[in-house]
Write a structure and sequence with these properties.
The protein is of the alpha/beta class. Helices cover 40% and strands 12% of the residues. Strand 4, helix 7 and strand 5 form a beta-alpha-beta unit. It is globular, with a radius of gyration of 21 Å. The site of pyridoxal-5'-phosphate has 14 residues, from helix 4 and helix 5.
Length: 377
């Protein structure tokens, strides 16, 4: 850094900036908690939050929602509620965040990693069908990679045709992912997601029995009928305070989602105008996303590009890096077919700053700096 740089430090552009309800949006809801004197254990705010969440989905059937402490526990409990034998084989895309693997492992099962579609970067029913034709699969955990929705109707059809249960790790796809009749979705409401409440999550499905088993497991496994534990669960309940933030977040959601949608479209145009050779995930334009990733041109080193952007005050992240089965904890995962698309995407993917504090000037700065770094690299 030169003396001139030290005198005029560039404004840092962070990768993420959480967008949470403000204190004054929460006050009325916190007063309700005071009145109820009910702080957790499926309280009135948590139940209202669940009902409002369920109303937000278009589905071919009535849906059940269970609010939970986070998405990782949601996935673990969905698997536990399937009551599969220990060490069952769970098909999962290797292009995902580590929490997907953590949940499978903590539920006591074996990972079988599969490739992702080269355009949407998600595991598709066709990929799962090919894997199921080659070996026994007991359950599929598909992933809405970087918020890109999967086709709920197609996964319902896959589950019906094969008898295999399907869970969708929809951690980052709140507002984008539709629900299904047979499949179950798990969403994250972590502060960094599009609709953050601090820590939180929920599951949704047309399979009400499955959802009620998850609710029971989230309360230690205590059966609400006889108050006995027939299957050990854990404590994964959402507190009334988190539900209050959730209700406030839902009230502002349509406006915040529209801002994210607009920003993502402008950002893409700006990047396309400045950076020749970069690629994008094929995802619905109408989606509200928490992250914005690009595929660097073939041959560019993401670690080097990230370091040069950091020098220029621009924070980036190699999301889903390394691939799930390349983490030491998951090195014993089986492999279903070739992982060529996942390896190619993972070797070129770079997450750029994306949050509601970005404006045209900051987008332009990111795009111009990335173009310069790519020219020099
Ligand atoms: C794909 C995926 N699955 C699961 C999770 C975990 O969600 P949570 O932090 O709510 O446990 C995340 C979080 O970023 C994620 O990206």
């Amino acid at each position: 850094m030169t003396a001139a740089d030290r005198a005029n430090p560039v404004e840092r552009i962070p990768l993420l900036l959480p967008d949470m309800p403000r204190a004054d949006e929460l006050v009325g809801l916190l007063r309700e908690i005071d009145e109820h004197r009910w702080y957790t254990n499926f309280g009135p705010l948590a139940r209202r939050f669940e009902a409002e969440l369920a109303r937000g989905f278009q589905a071919p059937c009535p849906l059940a929602v269970v609010s939970l402490a986070n998405c990782t526990l949601a996935l673990e409990l969905l698997l536990a509620a399937c009551r599969l034998p220990a060490e069952s084989t769970i098909l999962v895309p290797t292009l995902t965040f580590v929490a997907t693997g953590t949940a499978i492992r903590r539920a006591g099962h074996r990972l079988l990693v599969a490739d992702a579609d080269p355009l949407s970067w998600t595991l598709t029913p066709d990929i799962a069908r090919a894997a199921a034709a080659a070996q026994r699969i007991d359950c599929v955990v598909a992933v809405t990679a970087l918020g890109c929705p999967v086709d709920a109707a197609q996964w319902d059809a896959f589950s019906e045709e094969t008898g295999i249960r399907v869970i969708v790790d929809a951690a980052g796809a709140f507002g984008n992912q539709q629900a299904g009749q047979r499949i179950a979705l798990a969403f994250s409401l972590h502060a960094t997601k599009t609709m953050g409440i601090g820590e939180g999550g929920f599951v949704v499905s047309g399979d009400r029995e499955w959802m009620e088993r998850v609710r029971c497991l989230s309360n230690f496994g205590i059966d609400p009928g006889d108050f006995k534990v027939h299957q050990a669960g854990t404590n994964a309940k959402l507190s009334e305070y988190h539900a209050a933030v959730g209700l406030a977040a839902l009230a502002r959601w349509p406006e915040r989602a529209a801002l994210r949608r607009k920003l993502a479209l402008e950002y893409r145009q700006c990047l396309q105008a400045h950076c020749a050779g970069i690629g994008f995930q094929q995802r619905p334009d109408a989606g509200a996303y928490a992250t914005f990733c690009v595929l660097l041109p073939a041959g560019a080193d993401p670690a080097l590009v990230a370091a040069r952007l950091a020098d220029a005050g621009i924070e980036t992240r190699r999301w889903y890096y390394p691939l799930l089965h390349l983490h030491p904890a998951f090195a014993d995962a089986g492999t279903a077919g070739k992982l060529a698309s996942s390896m190619s995407i993972s070797g070129r993917l770079l997450g750029l700053p994306f949050h509601l504090d970005l404006d045209a000037g900051k987008m332009e700065r990111v795009a111009r700096t990335l173009a310069r770094v790519l020219r020099e690299a």
